[in-house]
């Protein structure tokens, strides 16, 4: 008599979002390359985070409107997380044109991740995202909390075949 077994590996996670509104955009530019303005702290995935907005770019290589996500304050490093940074349209929905997603990355005491080529100032000025000198960005952060192996119930092939046959018969009205 043969036996079958199966298992799955699941990455469990917690997700949170934060919306950062840049109001008075034209007055935020000109603060100089490498200078940022930080958002208020927010909690996502059980950790405190903030966004850093560099209206004139992070450095000369990475141009205007650089958005970064520094490692969260507190303990619990390293933290494995994915993030997505999206420009929001005037209805508060992620735009179809500008969104950047990450692969799973590790945040530790020195790590900074983000979107260093998010949108050029000249492109933002021509876009529908900038309205009345303001625009909004949403950052979704998904923190991997644990990776676990779990047993999976395997249906015997005869049971599956019988179920498929029953569904086909019901569909035909038999």
From TrEMBL:
Domain called MATH: residue spans: 15-141
PROSITE patterns in the cross-refs: MATH
UniProt superkingdom: Eukaryota
Coiled-coil regions, chain positions: none
InterPro entries (alphabetical): BPM1-6, MATH/TRAF_dom, TRAF-like
GO biological process: one example: protein ubiquitination
Protein name: MATH domain-containing protein
Phylogenetic lineage: Eukaryota, Viridiplantae, Streptophyta, Embryophyta, Tracheophyta
